[in-house]
Design brief:
alpha+beta; two-stranded antiparallel ribbon; 2 helices; 12 strands; about 20% helix
Length: about 190
C-alpha cells in the first residue's frame, strides 16, 4: 500500500509540473542564416540633439537620446523593485556608444566599450547572469536580427536590431509579462 501511495504521489507531482510547464510560452527558433547583403557591423552613437544634448522625439510618445539610457536604467530599477519575479530585465544592456561586430555565426555588441554581449545566429540555449538563468533564442527574421530571452516565470525580453538606410541603426526593446507589455523602447543610433 505504501508503494502505491508513493506511486500516486509521484504521478500527481509529475502531472502538476508538466501542467505548469505547459503554461509557459515557448520561444520560436530564429534563422541562423545571415540574409544576403545584411551587415550590422559598425560603430554607432545614440542619437541626441547636438545643441542641447536633450532627447530627440522619434515619434509620438517615444524619445531617443543620451538621457534615455539613464531613464532606461531607472525604468529597469522600478521593474526590479516592483516585481521581484521579473528577472528577464537584467538582460537589458544599454550604452551611448555601441560597436557591432558581425561574423558568419554571431553578433557581438559592445556597449560603451565596457560590456560585450554575444549572440549566436540560430541559437536556442540557456544563458545566465549570476544566479539568474533564462532561455535565449536569437537569429534572423528577414533582415532584422532578433534576440528573445525568457525567464523562468515566462517573462520575455525581445530585442530587434535593423538598419534603416546605411547609417541608421534601429533597436527596439520590449519586455512582456505573459501577454502584457510592461516596457517598450526604441533607440536610434547614427553610424560614426
Amino acid at each position: 500500500m505504501t508503494n502505491k501511495i508513493k506511486s500516486v504521489f509521484v504521478t500527481l507531482s509529475t502531472l502538476l509540473l508538466v501542467s505548469c510547464a505547459a503554461q509557459l510560452p515557448l520561444l520560436e527558433g530564429k534563422s541562423g542564416a545571415v540574409p544576403d547583403g545584411v551587415d550590422l557591423a559598425g560603430s554607432f552613437r545614440l542619437r541626441v540633439d547636438p545643441d542641447t544634448r536633450r532627447l530627440l522625439p522619434q515619434e509620438e510618445g517615444v524619445l531617443v537620446g543620451a538621457e534615455q539610457s539613464r531613464r532606461n536604467r531607472l525604468q529597469n530599477s522600478r521593474i526590479k523593485r516592483n516585481d521581484k519575479r521579473m528577472s528577464a530585465q537584467v538582460f537589458i544592456e544599454n550604452g551611448e556608444n555601441i560597436k557591432l561586430t558581425q561574423t558568419d555565426y554571431g553578433l557581438f555588441i559592445s556597449y560603451d566599450r565596457s560590456i560585450v554581449e554575444e549572440f549566436r545566429f540560430g541559437e536556442n540555449r540557456l544563458v545566465a547572469i549570476g544566479p539568474i538563468e533564462a532561455q535565449r533564442v536569437s537569429g534572423w527574421e528577414g533582415s532584422t536580427f532578433v534576440a528573445e530571452t525568457m525567464d523562468k516565470a515566462g517573462n520575455v525580453l525581445r530585442e530587434t536590431w535593423s538598419l534603416r538606410g546605411a547609417d541608421e541603426l534601429v533597436r527596439n526593446i520590449r519586455l512582456t509579462e505573459r501577454d502584457k507589455e510592461v516596457f517598450s523602447q526604441q533607440q536610434i543610433f547614427d553610424r560614426k
